[in-house]
Amino acid sequence: MNTPVVRALLYLDGVNVTFDGFRALRSLSLTVETGAMRAIIGPNGAGKTTMMDVITGKTKPDNGDVLFADGTVDLTRHDEASIAELGIGRKFQKPTVFESHTVADNVLLATAGPRGAFSSLWGARARVERERIDEALETVRLLAHRDRRAGELSHGQKQWLEIAMLLAQNPKLLLVDEPVAGMTDAETETTAELLREINRDHTVVVVEHDMSFVRALDCRVTCLHEGSVLAEGSIDTIASNERVIEVYLGR
Amino acid sequence: MNHRHTTLRDRARAIAPGLASPALLALAILFLLTCFASLPARAQDYNAALDKFLSDSFPDTEAGIAGVQAVGDPRGVPVIEALLDRRLLVNQAAKAIVYRDRAGATFDARTGEPAAAPDSPTTVRLNNRLRGIAQAALGAMTLLSPDPTRRRQAAEAVFRSRDASALPAIDQALARETLPSVRDALRLARAAIVLTDDATPMADRIAAVDVVSASADRDRIGLLRQVMNRAPAELKPALEAGIAKIENVLKMREIAQTFWFGLSLGSVLLLAAIGLAITFGVMGVINMAHGEMVMIGAYVTFMVQETIRNSAPELFDYSLLISLPLAFFVAGAIGVAIERGIIRFLYGRPLETLLATFGVSLFLQQGVRTIFGPTNREVGAPGFMSGYFEFFGLQITYGRLWIVVFAIFVFAMLLLVLKGTSLGLHMRAVTQNRRMAASMGIRTGFVDAMTFGLGSGIAGIAGVALSQIDNVSPNLGQGYIIDSFMVVVFGGVGNLWGTLVAALSLGVANKLLEPFAGAVLGKILILVLLILFIQKRPRGLFALKGRAVEQ
Amino acid sequence: MIAALLAEKLDGRGKIFLIFLALLALLVPICNLLVPAGSAFHIGTGTVVLLGKWLCYAMLAVALDLVWGYCGILSLGHGAFFALGGYAMGMYLMRQIGTRGVYGHPVLPDFMVFLNWTELPVAWWGFQNPVYAMFMVLAVPGALAFVFGWFAFRSRVTGVYLSIITQALTYALLLAFFRNDMGFGGNNGLTDFKDIFGFNVQSAGTRMALFLASVAGLVIAFLIARFMVTSTFGKVLVAIRDAESRTRFLGYRVERFKLLVFVVSAMMAGVAGALYVPQVGIINPSEFSPINSIEAVVWVAMGGRGTLVGAALGAGIVNALKTTFTTGALAPYWLFVLGALFVLVTVALPAGILGAAESLIKRMRGSGSPARKPAE
Lengths: 251, 551, 376
Hints:
With 251 residues, chain A is of the alpha/beta class. Helix content of chain A is 35%, strand content 24%. In chain A, helix 7 (185-199) links the parallel strand 7 and strand 8 (203-207). By secondary structure, chain B is mainly α. Chain B has helices at residues 2-15, 22-51, 58-71, 76-84, 128-143, 148-161, 167-176, 180-196, 202-212, 218-229, 236-282, 290-311, 319-341, 350-372, 398-420, 422-432, 434-439, 444-466, 478-491, 496-517, 519-536; strands at residues 88-91, 96-100, 106-108, 122-123, 388-391, 394-397. Chain B starts with a helix and ends in a 15-residue tail after the last helix. Chain C has one domain (2-366). Classes of the chains: A alpha/beta (251), B mainly alpha (551), C mainly alpha (376). Chains A and C meet through helix 2, helix 3 and helix 4 of A and helix 9, helix 10 and helix 11 of C.
């Protein structure tokens, strides 16, 4: 396979994924430039989460290119852990935090550092990295809760904690899956603000249903349908696209 | 082929007289009546024929032989045999006709009953002409007997004795015989004589090899090997081909036998696992007390049989039929109680469910042990479960056959319930999306209880069947629980067809391995292979892929 | 320095636990060997053996809690590691019998002579050497755990699937060890031991030494477990228990953490089994039976999983109950009690006795923080 010359942080081309005859992705192609923010929209079953699974190594594609960092890394050859080490962070649709750990420990586990089983037995990282933990918690406005157990947080706070964990991981690319599902309007607004803030230092891909949230993100939008790209462009172009209206937005 | 059908039906009728239809019954009575009516007349003719031997004159003896042959009474056969061997004794004055068997005991020729030898007996003499007549009569009486079973037995006797002197009688019988099964036996007997007789022309002997190797069993291959030892070179290729042909068939039959045993073990596994396929497969509840539901079903059978033995022994053949619904309801009710009492508090916590239901299983085991005692309980097999029939040379016991049929029947019923009833629909709705189902007005708690009850009830039904092949003891269920989980996981959780395929293939695999590894090692091997398989495909043979099934 | 490390690694209940064990190690020998037999404070040798047995069970419970309580791996096959350690010790003890067996064969154990074997199977080679035997006590369970865990964790078998295959594992071993031709004594197992490290296994002094070794074993196992769970490693274990795929997406190789903790735990279980065998005087295949493993799970659940101390406590309490219920008139009711314990612990006491007691104390002090959520 010739590695094409790619100038993009994330490059997907001709990716197919089939589950027992169901084609979740059909020659999906997508390019995200370094430092960009990208919103992905699309109806249920359009392949948004499968796309995330492919990028993070959870699902292996049947064929197609999944390249990272200007085409230097073939993501299909790595597992989740090494993709995470390469600098791709992922936020799940359902907030997934370590409920029995404190908020600070959640972030501690996410901060960059040796990940080996043996080294973690003797490593004494806790004292050194306090500053970075607090910084990340500050960003997501959770500093006051640092010693609470994560399981006691509200739904929205858990979403933010997860984002703080991703920040502590300091990834090059952040994949965020439906961050505002189940949030109040005020929380949604804060989250949009938060993501724009994060985008200053990181490349961000957001999957979302909430159109007003996508509008608030103010970025390039890709609409997926039946496993491939239906349309791409600014939010206004997308919102006025006939086919997008037909399959997704409704009249 | 034909005779197999008749014997099968005959045996079935003999084994299960209770199942005969009224029409058949009437026919049978009619048949018996005619038999009895004709009996006195035939007895008179027979005695009259025997009386001819008293005088010990050649013409009278000839008439006697003809008379006995004409009557065709089976009691005549030993008489003619004795005549031929000079063992037929008469005393004209006392009107006594007695024959001595080869061991020296004496019997009354008229009745066939043991009788004292008469005083100063005369041995009935024969000349060469009469000897020939008697021999022909004897062969005719057995080979030409009106009873096809006797004819076949006579032919089989000739096959074993390979007595060349029987050849004319065989040829005569062959000319007349119409029943294909007896014809086959006669041909085989003839071929055996021809093959062993070095005087026969080579072409006939080669043709005889073909007749012998037309079908396969130990006797036929034994005959060919025996002939092989001293056969002339021209005959050897034909014999070798014949032996190879029979060996082939025997080999195939052995394989078929292994598959049949595997199938029958597989259907036992299927029965044990099928309830679990509902509780674990559909509901996702890890029910470690599943085996105890099976055990309870077996004890229900035991109690039903006890009751029948004590109060209505004539119903014994129906005991399993009566046990089925009772076992279903008893095990089902206990299942519902467990679900409502314990499991519903533990949904979404599979490991806790596993532990709690394990506690329940200990409780049930000890409960049964306290009530019924720790020893095995005797559960009898009704008539239709005992006996066997032959199918292409395979011995198939009715017990195994019924369990295979029953397992498939239960499986089909379950599919029907899941696909065709509203309970099945609700069940699938609740397991797929509990909240959505609840908001559409389905009483999810009720559906949970019913689903669990159904799974447990089916385990109880399985217990009725397993009571026929396993020891009914409080530990009965323990032996099945790991196997059942293996079957469900191997087949793919939530996939009933997967469970079917998994159960049958595990059964066959087990039996295939047994000859090489022995029963215990075979089981260990299967377990190890399964452990490896689950690690390769944690979601089973026929699992759905994709993110829908995760979490 | 060691004191400082201990202070850092131990919480309140850990200190109380160690003090309790120290008292046990002090008082039991005094009451057994120094206090005269007639006194009310005398502890008979039978009781010493019983306590020693419970200590081995407590060690098994700590090992199980390490994988289940902290990492969410519910092993229903830990009894297999315990039994393998026990067999390794049993093989050493068999080789020490020498010519004192019934058949007086200098090398072969009685059961091999009985089976008309003429040579020692390869698996038995070297077991007359105590150092090699003790190495095998660790190595055999560790190796089995490594191979099993390597396959299982790499293929991401989790939850009840893992539990069921661990149960199948111990079941397969049960069937295998029942076979005479495996060369481990078949049905009867290994028994009639004479000496251990040159001392008579039956003597009161040896029994006391074994008891003290069991206390030491439990203390060491507890400290190792405590060291593991208080390090970052322990935090990752809990993270895996709470949200495995999140841990993986953070860049941790979950299977390696699981494998390490599983192997360490299996070795602990093996040592527990090795200490157990000379005290009870026999090891046979029934130690592999799935119910033993699952009983160990109820000790941990009963005491409170994810606490280590609770696991040891649970082993003590459940076995004290078992001893009460399996002797005398109550014998037929033990399985009822055990069954009820399973249900009670899972439905009503998810945090175990220790968890329930601690949350009660907290509530009385009014600090209001709810009990830790139990592992799923």
